[in-house]
């Protein structure tokens, strides 16, 4: 007696005593729940979006961008009305395209430059185009997590957008989003690309200054992409020019300056410059901005600034036609059915890819003409 488990339990010194555990986290993913609620928000009339955007409401700007990025047909018409009403208030910003090899520090550079511009009284928007997840089609990098100080600044707006399979990873709706950001009062808009590749062609067609970010010591592996990208850029920056890397950055700057002299002069009269900077210490950031403003002044003085924007509008016109035709083609009910049949024949090697494409296009045009004739008959 007195030594039984029951007696020990009564004395509070039982080996079977269970200590109080730590509080368990909620089984609800709050971030996912908030995201779901945002997606389920009621779509507002276009006028309410426009009113909020013009008032500088970042939440309303984000909701309008979500509407533009939506793939739902029911959202398309409203999104276009929002854009149409914002166009009159756009066009007053300086649009900067930022590209470079992976690891060049694009996001860190944009944050350093963004903070510098905000100190000078600017309001900035960053459209960071992320690679799309092949499963969810959503952004997988999330530049907001890499621009910690900029993302919480009330004078900055950062919007990571999934590339959604468009050319080289450039978001299909980026141009429309630029219009909304400008209408909201942001006077400097950054467009950051995924990396060096064909995306630069699309970015170059929507910005006023195209900046190529480089790092020292990455020579030979860049040979394959140098010429095409350098021919498009308006300026180059050797990033990470600090510490032990400072001397290497200066050598790389000299090498690229010499390389630029081998290219034919630009018809605008502007000669691309090469700068060094450190996004960590902020050394050289002011000089890069000065280069960008010098380019802007020269382009406006000679009339090339508006001329370039007009060419970009024409480029967008033809691109929009191509996108609309492609969408209409693949969404046509007859084509949706026919394409499965053709793909099966292609897999069985009963026809070539070119023959398969001709069959689908002939079917599409035949259906389009038939639908037009039926409509004319109905109208008469």
Primary descriptors:
alpha/beta; Rossmann fold; 380 residues; seven-stranded parallel sheet; 3 domains; Single alpha-helices involved in coiled-coils or other helix-helix interfaces
Give structural notes.
This protein starts with a helix and ends with a helix. Strand 2, helix 7 (148-151) and strand 3 (156-162) form a beta-alpha-beta unit. The chain has helices spanning 5-11, 30-39, 46-54, 58-69, 73-86, 106-119, 148-151, 174-183, 199-204, 223-232, 246-260, 285-301, 304-331, 333-347, 353-379, and strands at residues 94-100, 124-130, 156-162, 188-192, 209-215, 235-239, 273-276. By secondary structure, it is of the alpha/beta class. It has three domains: 35-84, Up-down Bundle (Single alpha-helices involved in coiled-coils or other helix-helix interfaces), CATH 1.20.5; 90-301, P-loop containing nucleotide triphosphate hydrolases (Rossmann fold); 317-372, no CATH class. Helix 3 (46-54) crosses helix 4 (58-69).
């Amino acid at each position: 007696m007195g030594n039984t488990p029951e007696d020990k339990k009564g004395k509070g010194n039982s080996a079977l005593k269970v200590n109080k555990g730590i509080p368990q986290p909620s089984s609800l993913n709050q971030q996912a729940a908030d995201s779901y609620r945002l997606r389920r928000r009621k779509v507002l009339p276009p006028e309410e979006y426009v009113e909020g955007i013009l008032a500088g409401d970042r939440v309303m700007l984000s909701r309008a961008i979500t509407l533009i990025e939506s793939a739902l047909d029911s959202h398309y018409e409203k999104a276009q009305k929002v854009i149409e009403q914002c166009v009159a208030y756009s066009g007053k910003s300086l649009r900067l395209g930022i590209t470079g090899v992976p690891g060049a520090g694009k996001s860190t550079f944009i944050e350093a430059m963004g903070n510098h511009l905000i100190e000078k009284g600017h309001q900035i928007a960053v459209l960071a185009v992320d690679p799309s997840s092949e499963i969810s089609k959503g952004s997988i990098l999330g530049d907001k997590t890499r621009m910690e100080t900029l993302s919480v600044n009330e004078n900055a707006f950062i919007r990571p957008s999934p590339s959604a399979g468009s050319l080289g990873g450039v978001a299909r709706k980026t141009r429309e989003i630029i219009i909304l950001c400008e209408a909201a009062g942001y006077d400097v808009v950054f467009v950051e690309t995924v990396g060096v590749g064909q995306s630069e062609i699309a970015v170059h067609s929507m910005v006023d200054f195209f900046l190529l970010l480089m790092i020292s010591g990455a020579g030979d592996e860049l040979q394959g992409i140098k010429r095409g990208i350098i021919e498009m850029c308006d300026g180059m920056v050797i990033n990470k020019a600090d510490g032990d890397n400072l001397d290497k950055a200066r050598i790389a700057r000299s090498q690229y300056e010499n390389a630029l002299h081998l290219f034919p002069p630009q018809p605008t009269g502007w000669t691309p410059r090469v700068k060094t900077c450190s996004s960590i210490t902020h050394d050289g950031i002011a000089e890069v901005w000065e280069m960008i403003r010098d380019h802007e002044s020269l382009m406006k003085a000679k009339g090339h600034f508006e001329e370039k924007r007009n060419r970009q509008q024409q480029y967008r016109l033809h691109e929009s036609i191509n996108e609309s035709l492609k969408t209409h083609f693949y969404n046509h009910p007859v084509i949706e059915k026919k394409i499965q049949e053709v793909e099966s024949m292609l897999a069985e090697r009963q026809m070539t890819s070119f023959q398969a494409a001709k069959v689908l296009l002939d079917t599409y045009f035949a259906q389009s003409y038939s639908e037009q004739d039926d409509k004319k008959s109905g109208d008469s």
